[in-house]
Amino acid sequence: MSAVFRELLKKIGSGPHTGRDLTREEAKTATLMILRQEATPAQIGAFMIAHRIKRPTGEELAGMLDAYDELCPRLSSLGGESEVVVLGTPYDGRSRTAPVTVLTALILAASGLSVLLHGAEKMPTKYGLPLVQIGQDLGVDFPAATLPKVQQMLEQTGLGFFYTPSHFPDFTSLITYRDEIGKRPPFATLELIWSPYGGNYHLLAGYVHPPTEHFIQEALRLRDVEKYTLIKGLEGSCDLPRDRTAIITCQDPGNFDQRERLKIHARDYGLGGTEVPLTSRDELLAQINTTLEGKPSPLWPAVLWNGGFYLWRCGKVAHLPDGIQQAQRLLEEGQVATKLAELKGL
């Protein structure tokens, strides 16, 4: 048993009256001991559920991210003023609504932006459809790519996928615990705002519960992340909703105290409607392929809505309607399909 870890566990697990939050350094130490399996299984499980009940602070999340940075290799900077768009999406996938994140990433890459995704296979607690399996269905075997290959993909095509189990094997030690405790631990929040890229980046991250946004903002402030976009998205993803108002927070460099709060609705741009349900993997693939052919599909409004917004937010167009028009043009002219073909050809 680790006596050091026991003291950290006692600190967060003593209840609302005597319990205390961890410092950033303590959170880093606890995370390192968990990832290295220096704490016992009982201690790790107890820590995860106690931290889940207590809820992590921004300072604790910052320390946990520090630990990830210490143990995990990063992709090298593309150099200069290049900015990579990092899409943080829940590792336990989607189970209710059809994800369009991969199509959004392809649209951004087809426009000349650099985009990095990261993730794993089906994960607890939801065991939903992960992005990596959508990529495989489209003919891109992201898990098979070595880290140098991912770097090459990012540099040559503008789109890379960091397959966490391969490139950060310490991460896999958490999977069994996540399943056995039956609830998402704070590591699930950390994954939304973690970046395996070593250069300048623009973080896009989704969330579900409003308190989570506050914790994320504080962690990013402490970590000096200067540019991010937080979205109250579908199932905690970066996918903007179409059936309700999209709530978005935008942070730009040098403007930590003056974040922009956006409330926009797809119906105001002719793209509102009911969210497309995720009925089966095969049906989703058929819908994606139809969209890639530049033909209207059930996903079409959601893809234009998301692609258009992110083209605008990432500075490719001056106005949101222009972004929607550009997303449609990139699809109809075959440039998005061409980008996918480039990835498959590497």
From TrEMBL:
The keyword Amino-acid biosynthesis applies. Residues 96-335 form the Glycosyl transferase family domain. Keywords: Amino-acid biosynthesis, Aromatic amino acid biosynthesis, Glycosyltransferase, Transferase. InterPro entries: Anthranilate_Pribosyl_Tfrase, Glycosyl_Trfase_fam3, Glycosyl_Trfase_fam3_N_dom, Glycosyl_Trfase_fam3_N_dom_sf, Nuc_phospho_transferase. Residues 6-70 form the Glycosyl transferase family 3 N-terminal domain. Transmembrane segments: none annotated. One of its GO terms (molecular function) is glycosyltransferase activity. It holds the Pfam family Glycos_transf_3. PANTHER family: ANTHRANILATE PHOSPHORIBOSYLTRANSFERASE, SLL1634 PROTEIN. This is Anthranilate phosphoribosyltransferase family protein. It comes from Spirulina subsalsa FACHB-351.
